[in-house]
Amino acid sequence: MRWLLWLPLALFALIIAVVMSGLIHPASTDIRSQLVGKPLPEFALPAGVPSHPPLAKADLRGGPRLINIFASWCLPCAVEAPQLMVLKRAGVVIDGIAIRDRPEDLAAFLARYGDPYSRIGSDANSRVQLALGSSGVPESFVVDGRGVIRLQHIGDIREENIPTILAAIEAAK
Amino acid sequence: MIAEAGLAALWLAAALALLQLGLGALALRGHAALGPAVRPVAVVQGALVALAFALLILVFLRSDMSVALVVENSHSAKPWLYKFAGTWGNHEGSMLMWVTILGLGGAAVALLERRLDQRTAIATLAAQAAIGLGFYAFLLFASNPFARISPAPADGHGLNPLLQDPGLAFHPPTLYLGYVGLSIAFSYAVGALITGQVGPTLARAMRPWVLGAWILLTLGITAGSYWAYYELGWGGWWFWDPVENASLMPWLAATALLHSVTVLATRAALRAWTVMLAVVAFSMSMIGTFLVRSGILTSVHAFAVDPRRGSFILVLLAIYIGGALALFALRASSVREGAPFEPVSREGALVINNLLFSAILGIVLTGTLYPLAVETMTGEKLSVGAPYFDATAGPLALALVVVMAAGPLLRWRRDELKALAVRLAIPAAVAIVAIAVVFLLLPVAGVLPRLGLIFAAGIAIASVAPLAGRNLRRTPLHIWGMVIAHFGIAVSLAGMASESAFTRETLVAARPGETLAVGPWSVRFVGVEPVAGPNWTAIRAKLEARRGDTLLTLAPEARMFNAPPTETTESAIATRPTGQLYTVLGKSDGDGRWQLRLWWKPMVTLIWAGGALVAIGGALALLGRLRRERRREAM
Amino acid sequence: MKPKNQRLALLLLAVVAVLGAALLAMSGLRQQASYFYAPSDVVRDKLPVGREVRLGGMVVKGSLRHARDGVTIDFRVTDGMKTVPVRFRGIAPDLFREGSGVVAEGTFQSDGRFVADNLLAKHDERYMPPQLAGAMHKTGKVR
Description:
The structure holds 3 protein chains of 3 kinds.
Chain A: H1 7-24, E1 44-45, E2 55-56, E3 65-70, H2 75-89, E4 94-99, H3 103-113, E5 117-123, H4 127-131, E6 139-143, E7 149-154, H5 162-171
Parallel strand pairs in A: 3-4, 4-5
Antiparallel strand pairs in A: 1-2, 3-6, 6-7
Chain B: H1 2-28, H2 38-61, H3 68-73, H4 80-86, H5 91-112, H6 118-142, H7 166-195, H8 200-232, H9 242-267, H10 271-294, H11 307-331, H12 346-378, E1 382-383, H13 386-406, H14 417-423, H15 425-441, H16 447-464, H17 477-502, E2 504-510, E3 515-518, E4 521-532, E5 536-547, E6 550-554, E7 557-561, E8 566-570, E9 572-576, E10 579-588, E11 594-602, H18 606-634
Antiparallel strand pairs in B: 2-11, 3-4, 4-5, 5-6, 5-7, 7-8, 9-10, 10-11
Helix pairs in contact in B: 1-2, 1-6, 2-4, 2-5, 5-6, 5-7, 6-7, 6-11, 7-8, 7-10, 8-9, 8-18, 9-10, 9-12, 10-11, 12-13, 13-16, 15-16, 16-17, 17-18
Chain C: H1 3-32, E1 34-37, H2 39-44, E2 53-59, E3 65-66, E4 72-78, E5 83-89, E6 101-108, E7 114-121, H3 130-139
Parallel strand pairs in C: 1-2, 5-7
Antiparallel strand pairs in C: 2-4, 2-6, 3-4, 4-5, 6-7
């Protein structure tokens, strides 16, 4: 009967094993985007701040660019701002879609964290964001000169993502 | 400077924890001369870690934006109360709170523990230090709360109004105090296993800590349930969400431990059980914390999702719990036999109590982890919800409340079923009357709600039966505590069954001016108006509810926040002596009609009133025991 | 009862309780766990009529109909291959809209219609909720 005393430990080891495997093979959270290769939906947004022109699908002709969905109240957007500046310095055209934001807050955000944007559209109730299939901020799309999505990046852009994005911009030319 | 001082204090505290463990281990292995040093070290460790936490609070209160944590989680415009609560409203801060409570608990044991023999006390403090060390390491190497950010931004990002809610702010400390209180019981158990001193003295030393932790857990769960009820707008009070289960499981183990420790204290029986339950209770606290923080379970309110952090805690878990269980397997045979008792006796009832609680605990744990296990092994996704828990744990819980009714009426060591039957005659009679009443009132209803009402009636009477024939003024406080706590369970059960059986719902799309009926209430939908708050806009409905002479106004809202954008429903609840009117506003159909969902929930407040009674009963019991100990020492 | 026997009896009692609880749990899980279905799974496997399950997919654009009572909606859910008609009575979550992902909890009727008690809307149009991605794997749609 002595072995029965080891039963609790054995049960516990089983639980740990189950949980550990849950960590090692996390439930498929990275979903392959179905957007790549599809054209952007039609949209026309008013200007997000007076200092920048508004953004519509028609404006996206003339070369590949990065469309960055962000907001002044979003912390990861502030964290990725330096990387956007790096991309801008590398010659990437960046257009922003600011969701559920106010002009004064946007202006303050740009003043504080830098302004990589050529155009900023104001998406007050997230309609365009949702139409783009975006579920949160920040999120960025590499779009070619014909308005077709070439790359989707979910979450903040980090230093290690820069080469991939630059390569996608190159390929979209 | 303050942040650096805080970090330094944290390092010192960690070093002292290491010293505490080292001295304790050496003292137990023959260098007895080092023994007396362990207590002072524990006290200083507690003081230092408390200082570190206080300094973090200060950093938050001063909105020091050079500290990364403050930037991420606070804002200078926040009310000071939420700046204060914001200290622990994030991963690093709450981990620091955890080790602070661990350290202070160890310090308290070092200062107050007088009953145990020296060796066991030292082993206990060493175990407590060992637990702390893992978390110190986690904090110092992976989650530094005092990390600076440079350049310091002008202000923080933590002005999310959804998090500025008193319930949300003070829920974690309550639960944490509970979890960590169980860590002390765990340390006592481990200490006693090491020195082989599992007996009534250990039980009496452990009991106040178990009671204290259990009271806090009861309050935490009750408050959490009510918060979810009014905040989520679904009218439900328990969702079997993994995060909810994570707080329920330690409570189940702690309740079993509470009863077991009393048996050990007074009757010197159930030694091995008590030690095992103490290990299980804290294990459940740790598993709960891990589940909530690791992101492996999808939940309505999962946060701080980071697999790396989850892995670290998992490793700590494996070491602490695995170690304790191994220790148990190795040393259980050294635990003395308990005093004998007959199957029909209070001890016997408490054994059945332990078994039922353990079974329910196992069922909840299985249900919570099953989706994860299945997905890992077969890739299939499924969810386990109320149907499973109701079907499996429900009947066991009903059996448990029957035992709860009968147990206190049984004599220690040996009793007779016939005598018990006599004592249960009146409660049984009440239950039979209840059966008739329930079937008359509820010709059509589910089995569980009906049983719940019937059992609640019988148990309410049975729980006060121990007071029969006593001189009430001279009845010990802990007996009152037991009676009130058990009565509270009956009250809560009545509320749950009532909500399930008698709730009336009305769901319509109505035009302003229309009158709707819900239960005995006649509710007129007066109209809607747009309203605005500091950072939100909303559509507010005005409802006038009438029943007899009573007229109430309710104003449910559909609210939209800006930063960050979220839409919430603010339900409007009116509480009456006989129940609650719960109202929710939905969307407009564009044609002048608005969706309205109304519930009349008779007696639903009993659920949480019962929970409060249970906690009060526990507090009385604790008070009674402490007073007794003080008197005993004085003599 | 002698102490030695008492200890043994308690230990056996504990083992019996553990086994009993395990059996209860297993049977409960088998009967009450809520399985996840994509529309294609429904047509392939036998229809789990009357049992509480989850159905996930995209809300077919143009399929949303509001009933006259203002609180009931009918729509169709698709995984790109098959569709299932769904009826829901209640206040739909804000992020629920045509072309968006949704997970519905409820039961199938014998005529193949799904009656939902609860809707969990996902906020994306074009990437599937994670559960659906796993189920698509099962229905054989290769990515």
